[in-house]
Amino acid sequence: MGRLAGRIALVTGGSRGIGRAIARRLAADGATVALTYARESAAADEVVRSIAKDGGRAFALHAELGRHGDATALWEAFDAATGNARVDIVVNNAGIGRSSDLAGLTEAEFDKVFAVNVRAPFFIVRHALARLNDGGRIINISSGVSRVAMPEIIAYGSTKGALDTFTLNLAKALGPRGITVNSVAPGIIDTDLNAGWLRADPQAWEQASAISALGRVGTPEDVADVVAFLASDDARWVTGRVVDATGGSAL
C-alpha cells in the first residue's frame, strides 16, 4: 500500500502542468485525489483516466477561482461528490502564472491576479478547516520569484510573497492541530504554459537551463515529488517553510 493510502487530497488546478503531476503523484502514493479545473474539462477527465489506469483513484471538480464565493462553491462540489468526506491534504496550486510590469499593470489585472493567487487559496483553506483532519497537510505552490527580483512580473511575484507569508502564519495557527503548512517554490518548469517562449526557442531553453545550478529546466515531476514528501508522514516535523524547488536557480 502507498504511504498516503486512505487519505483524501484536494489539488486545485490539477488538469495540467504542475497540478497534473501533483495529482498523479499523490494518487500513485495511495491518496484519493479531487482535482479542480476552471475550463479544460477534457484535460481534467484525461488526468482522472490516467490515474485510474495506473490503479489510483481520482475525480474532477469544476471550480472557477478568483470570484467572490468561489471557495464556498468548490467545497460544496467536494461535499456533493464525496458525501461530506473529510480531507487530509490541500494543495493550492491553481494560479495565474504571469503579470505585466508596473508601467503596464492595470487595476483590473492587479485585482485578478491577487484574487486567483492569494484570495482563492486563503478562503479555500478557511473553508477547509472544518473538513480537514488533525495531522493534515496544507501545501501552497509559490514561486522562486518570491526571493528573486523580476520587475517585469511584479504583481505575480507579489502574490507569491503574500502566499509565503500566509503559509508562515497559517503554520503557527494550525500547529496545535498537528497540521503542517508549507510552500513549495518552483523555478522555470517545462509546462505547456511556458511552451510558447521556452520550447520553441533553443536560446531561451539554454538560458533557462543556465539559471539552475543543476544546469537544466525543471519538470512538473520535480515539483510533484517535493509536494509528495511534504504530504507524507516523513515531513511531519516540517512546517512554516518555503521549500525551494528551483534546482538552485539564481544562487
TrEMBL record:
Keyword Ribonucleoprotein recorded: no
Lineage: Bacteria, Bacillati, Actinomycetota, Actinomycetes, Streptosporangiales
SMART domains per the UniProt record, alphabetical: PKS_KR
Domain Ketoreductase: start-end pairs: 7-208
Keywords, ordered alphabetically: Oxidoreductase
GO molecular function: oxidoreductase activity
Pfam families linked: adh_short_C2
Domain of life: Bacteria
UniProt cross-references to InterPro entries, sorted A to Z: KR_dom, NAD(P)-bd_dom_sf, Sc_DH/Rdtase_CS, SDR_fam
Record's protein name: NAD(P)-dependent dehydrogenase (Short-subunit alcohol dehydrogenase family)
Family: Belongs to the short-chain dehydrogenases/reductases (SDR) family.
